[in-house]
Design brief:
This protein is an alpha+beta fold. It has three domains: about 120 residues; about 80 residues; about 70 residues, Glutaredoxin, CATH 3.40.30. About 65% of the residues lie in helices and about 10% in strands. It has a four-stranded mixed β-sheet, with helices on both faces.
Length: about 270
């Protein structure tokens, strides 16, 4: 999001956080579901999206337009959040859509937090991403944009229902729809990061040839926490193809000390002689 859009999103996000701090987890989850429904409405109606983000129209008018469309269809809290979004200033109509979808995801994460399940939801999202990565057939089925979304969602439901938290299942379905224009796997990764951010943590995605021991993982997490000045959660992926060493990705920072990377660097250097 560009600067003006970030400000508009922050205003709505503060309202959501205030609501989530005191409301029952079920009510927060309902708000998340409804916000995602609002995002679906915006996605399916480009003209409405443009009208609600038109800088030539007063913010109060845009907010009132959205209220009139949603009244009686969503809860009062969702209605208020949608009005705040519509009344904000947006650099592009697409950013209003992204904001509504992101806020729906944040509300689902906040509901998991209220229920004491956020850390578990974070782990479930990461583990499911690993399962999908490890199965080309499953990855292909879930990433197939030609297949009807409902069909892919039903497959996810078959795999996860009764085995994962309801918030996890819903978030995976959002990732299937291309959360924020991302691929399925990238959407899951972003949700893991958002879960950690809500717990005031960062995530280190670590790739190794063989699993780290609990002690090694703890020491790595401690070192990274000292480096970044906040708690860092280590999420490790085992990939024998890296041969040895490890790569660590924290946000946009990549530290690649794998044997595979060194071999590739050597090959590249030799080919340039």
């Amino acid at each position: 999001m560009q600067g003006v859009s970030r400000e508009s999103y922050r205003t709505a996000a503060e309202r959501l956080d205030s609501f989530a701090a005191s409301a029952p987890a079920a009510d927060v989850a309902k708000t998340g579901d409804e916000l995602l429904m609002v995002a679906d409405v915006l996605r399916g109606q480009p003209r409405l999206r443009r009208a609600l983000s038109d800088p030539g129209r007063a913010g109060d008018d845009r907010a009132e337009l959205f209220r009139s469309l949603l009244t009686g269809k969503v809860s009062d809290e969702t209605l208020e959040l949608a009005a705040i979004l519509a009344g904000g200033r947006w650099s592009a109509a697409s950013e209003l859509l992204d904001a509504a979808e992101r806020m729906g995801v944040e509300a689902l994460l906040a509901s998991a937090d209220r229920a004491g399940d956020l850390a578990e939801v974070e782990d479930e999202l990461f583990r499911f991403g690993q399962v999908v990565d490890g199965s080309p057939a499953l990855s292909g089925a879930l990433s197939d944009v030609v297949a009807p979304p409902a069909q892919r969602a039903e497959l996810v439901k078959t795999l996860l229902e009764g085995k994962a938290k309801p918030a996890t299942l819903k978030l995976v379905e959002v990732a299937l729809g291309g959360f924020g224009g991302r691929s399925f796997q990238t959407g899951l990764t972003r949700m893991v990061e958002m879960s950690a951010e809500r717990r005031d943590r960062q995530v280190a995605f670590v790739t190794v040839a063989a699993p780290l021991s609990d002690d090694e993982e703890r020491r790595l997490g401690t070192k990274l926490s000292q480096l970044y000045g906040r708690d860092v959660t280590v999420k490790q992926t085992v990939d024998p193809q890296v041969l040895g060493g490890m790569s660590v990705l924290v946000g946009s920072d990549l530290y690649d000390g794998t044997v595979l990377r060194r071999l590739n660097d050597t090959r590249k250097a030799l080919s340039q002689r």
